[in-house]
Amino acid sequence: MTYFHPERMPVLPARRRKAARLQLEELVRRTAKTPKRRPPVIVAAVIAIVLVSSGAAMFAVGAHQPVTNENTARCFTSASVSGYATDIAVAGKRASSGQIQNARAICADLYSDGHLKKGVRREFPRASKVKQPVPHLVVCIWSDGTAAVFPGPQGTCASLDLPAAARR
Asked: Which distant-in-sequence residues (6+ apart) come within 8 Å of 27 by Cβ?
């Protein structure tokens, strides 16, 4: 048994039929519009810009950090975190003139005087009478905030997974 019987349906007045038809057409017109799609090139360009700018920001923040432990520094003889290193320290209270001000210069002096030699796993206690060649030195930041000076090119800190020291 069905409740729909076409012969018993009341006839709608023409004005109501027209209004119902207009409402139905408007509903179809609104739902038939597909949302405007962005071209894939624009979407890809926006994604690329976001990735590049966030990568640049991460590099700027994480690649260079300040030295927080200014009481000591380490001079390495090879570009390896497990290589030989000598600690240099200056006696003095925090914020006194006795702190390490330029770890690179102090390590360069140790190389120049012959106390350190690139690639050699020991220190030479007596200074050489002849100035020795000084390798190119880069300053990285050790995990405890100490300056760690390594012989090597500019990208040495990155290859050792250490941040480079911020320039003063």
From this structure: none
3-state DSSP assignment of residue 166: coil
Helix (H, G, I), strand (E, B), or coil: what is residue 127?
coil
d(CA 28, CA 22): 10
> Which tens digits make up the pLDDT trace of 20-64?
899 988 888 887 666 666 677 777 888 888 887 776 656 554 556
Give buried/exposed letters for 67-102 (b at 16+ CB in 10 A, else e).
beebebbbbbbbbebeebbeebeeeeeeeeeebbee
Q: pLDDT above 70 covers what percent of the chain?
A: 73
- Looking at the DSSP bridge assignments, the partners of residue 147 are 73, 141
